[in-house]
Amino acid sequence: MSMSAENLRRMIAEDEFGLLESPVKRESLTPDDRLLAGFREITEFVVQSGRPPAIDAPDMGEAKLAMRLRAMIGNEEQRLRLQEFDTLGLLKEIDPPATLAEAVASDTSGLLDNDDEDIFIIRNVPKIVTVPDKIAQRKPCEDFEKFEPLFKQCHAELRSGERQIVPFRREQQIRPDTYYVLRGLLLYVAGSSAKVKEHGRINARLRCIFENGTEIDILLRSLSSQLYRFGKRVTDTNAATLASIGLAPDTPMAAVYVLRSLSDDPQVRDLPNLYKIGSTKQTVELRTAGAQKQTTFLNAPVEVVAEYAVPAGIEQKVERLLHRVFSSVRLDVWFEQRGATVAEANEWFVVPLKAIDDAIRLIETEAIKDYEYDVDTQTMRLHG
After folding, report:
1. pLDDT in the model for residue 342
2. Is the pTM higher than 0.90?
């Protein structure tokens, strides 16, 4: 992702808006704020783990998330209030069994079993599933010869570094002439129907071509749900990204990056939502090479979870601004290994990845001066 050229040029020239001096304020939480914060924590878990939290999980934190989700599903008022934020379809109410046979079939815990009195002849009646009117299914792409060269070019651009494979974050990223990886297959969005608004959210029907010569007709929101769970996004080419923000193709670029530690040290591993925010004029891959030998990376391998392209010269300014925004959750500790102090974690923050991404968008639009990070809701919020 690259930022708006006009806004970035202003940042290069002077700190016109006093972004680095923005005071951090706090405001009281409402019941709706707490409800939304609790649901976003569940969503973040699903995005990172690829599955809903399990109520019988050995990890107490996951079990609590599962119990919270179950309570939200069972509360009609809360479901309605959270509906517009339920991008993953987590709040879909489970239909009650329509018949006694269905109740028996769904009794996976054996609560209705009675060996002494065998009152049911059939114990495993499959549950009747209501099939939607139209199911998205792959079919052979009859004009695949038009798309095959596009896939070959995309693969070449990935090998050369002109494109990167990054996590999928927002359904608003989906548009025609973009690429994604879904369940290991490269996917190209070839076209889209007119967008419509459904329940306050935009939807459209997409024609998606797979590199194996098949295609699928699928709703935008259905595709985004699949990509959240099983997919990645392929970035635009570097040249296309620069052109989209009005910069010349030869503009020197730098990067602001977000990393997750892959350390097996309990001091690091047991901290949820722990990320390092940094910047570099090199490629991020080169900067993080040999991370296990560098104290700034906590002497452990790291995973690049987000990367933002900015014109070279302002990357440190954007990094400092992000550090200031999240100063309240900076990991202000020293780590020890084998009895010796090895690293001061002053570029590591305990903050959800979505909040970092939201802060980047606010910097891009210069709206960051009106926002602060709320520790309780773990979201970017307007100053009170």
Report:
1. 56
2. no
